[in-house]
């Protein structure tokens, strides 16, 4: 079994922001926490109960709805989380 680490409140909020922007990009009025819309590009994958940052093989999981029993497969600092999510947001909008 892979070790799971609790994530900080700020990265959790950034994950919510990323999922919300994915929902908007897919034309959904708002984020459904029970059914996060699937999205994948070269940088990240997000889907129901899972987020993967491909560049670092970082995986964040949750149970049933986004925010419940949320955990990460790595013990990252806030700075590392911030860099990861900024990279994901940039990739969502093709910003280099």
Brief sketch in words of this structure:
By secondary structure, the chain is of the alpha+beta class. The chain contains two helices and five strands; from the N terminus they run αβββββα.
Domains, number: 1
Largest sheet properties: 5 strands, antiparallel
Number of helices: 2
The low-confidence parts are none
The outline comes out as: globular
Strand segment count:
5
Give the proportion of residues in helices. 25-40%
Largest sheet strand order: 1-2-3-4-5
Cα(first) to Cα(last) distance is 36 Å
Question: Would you tell me the overall average pLDDT?
Answer: 89
Explain what this protein looks like in three dimensions.
With 96 residues, the protein is an alpha+beta fold. It has one domain (9-92). It has two helices and five strands. It has helices spanning 9-25, 78-92, and strands spanning 39-40, 44-47, 50-53, 58-61, 71-72. The radius of gyration is 12 Å and the shape is globular. The termini are far apart.
